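Morning, I've got a small favour to ask if you have a moment. Here's the protein in full, and shout if anything looks odd to you:
***
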Amino acid sequence: MIEELTKSQALLDRRKNAVANGVGVFNTATVSDAKGAIIIDADGRELIDFAGGIGVVNAGHCPEPVVAAIREQAGKYLHTSFNVVTYEPYIELCEELIDILPHGEQTKAMLVSTGAEAVENAIKIARQATKRPAIICFTGAYHGRTMMAMTLTSKISYKYDCGPFAPEVYRLPFPNLYRYKGDRNEAAFVKDELKRLRESALNLVDVKSVAAIILEPIQGEGGFNPIPQEYLEGLRAFCDEHGILLIMDEVQSGFCRTGHWASWQHYGVQPDISTYAKSMGSGLPIAAVLGRADIMDAAAAGSIGGTYIGSPVCCAAALATIKYMKEIDLNAKAVEVGATIMNRLKNLMKECPQIGDVRGIGAMIGIEFVKDGDPTQPDAEICTRIVKGCSDNGLIMLSAGTHKNIIRILSPLVITPEHLDKGMTIFENEIRKARKK
């Protein structure tokens, strides 16, 4: 008897036949419906979502106020292009972003569709504002897959055979405390890394030609690595000394994930320009670049933006999302969810030496797996087994990191205590099973 394909498998088979292979498959789950932190797959199976659409649904799947705002705006007008016909949702969203994410005395904003597009425009703004060509970025960085963003992105597997890449981009080692600290304490490690930063002006690129340094304060795809406080402060001072703009990419870490609207607010270090997307619109394609007004206004008319900058429907979704986040105090929920996850994983570390590190801020938490307790021996195999085991038991998870040995938790922050407990129990059980193989 021939076994009948499940609806999920049939859908995946159709995907394989119709969709280009280069489109990644990070998890084989499917979806027919989603609400809060729960996804219902094509076969009606309930899945707990610890991936959040790669950090896009901090406010949950289909929050009712956001869905209502989308429907209302869709009934008025779908598109005019903000370049051609001005509409209020774009302006109102910029005003809201300026209010919650101020960059000095006066801030201005622009809207686009994706995080990569925000990064592209941030670089163009920085170059025009400084009249300098060079950009410094970091190892482990992920900034997108368009040409400049892909050049800035560190992981080679995202850009096989895609060159030549954008010129005048220079890369420094990210101060990854867990992997590279060695026998040094944090203060000594940071001191050495700041020395490396200063020496870059002598052996990497003429500091007088550097327009900007761009970084994720907490690396996303790079492995949920939070930058050390003292390093970020030193980086800010270095930029100020040499007239370099500091760009912070908050695409994954923004909008309540860390318990703040942006992770730079946790650090108390002000960027000159910052970029946002993902959870800003609860899943609709909307992104933003914010910065000091004098810097933002340095871009020539028509040199930034595009046809679909700030879709009115996406603006309405973002405005409703931010309002909803405020009403339910999603930043506080992130702290609570993060504390629960962190406490459970720290306890699990005591019995599982394969867990080399558990780190993060708020509910942006990464778990790094290594061999023999050695930070320089990443264990991707156990990570793969855990993600597969979780998937088989109804929990959607994502790996990360240059070596794919880190699991990142990006559950919707509205997850109920019951679903959080159930998801963590599945995760813990799969770690225990995987370590015995």
Notes: The longest strand covers residues 355-361.
